[in-house]
Amino acid sequence: MDLGLFILGAVFGLTLTAHSVQKLFGWLGRPGIAGTAQMLEQPGFRPPRRPAVVAGLVEGGAGLALAVGLLTPLAAAAFISVMFVAAVSVHLPKGFFNQNGGFEYTRALATGALAVAFTGPGAISADALLGIDWSGPIWGLAALAIGLVGSGTQLLSRRSELPNASAHQVA
To answer: Rounded to an integer, what distance in angstroms lies between the CA atom of residue 55 and that of residue 64?
Structure first.
């Protein structure tokens, strides 16, 4: 079971880390911070550069922490938060399936992180090495709650496009 938990955390964590380096550095076929900022402007994240950097850093930190099993419920909470923001702000209007740009993939990644928060990372982890035993229903629910609050905060910070000022002027 411990090897399975290690594999689960490593695959999900390193997948999120790959997203991070795409956003932050433009590696692996993505345009980096400038392109991420431009993409985030569409769903209302303004100014877009700051949330692009924050998303990249959170993804990188949460991904690496989950991959090595460090502070697992907190890593899962951050992971859930960024995936929920992506799902709601970009993918939800496109339906479920990933092939149409839907939220299937973000939901699967967040669910994997949540599963690790409930079960814990197992004996092959930094948490086990440090004697941290944060797992079980309370920790899983805490990771979910923290992730949803964090994502809600980000989603509420979005701004809709301001109406055209000239349309409201009286001639």
So the answer is: 14
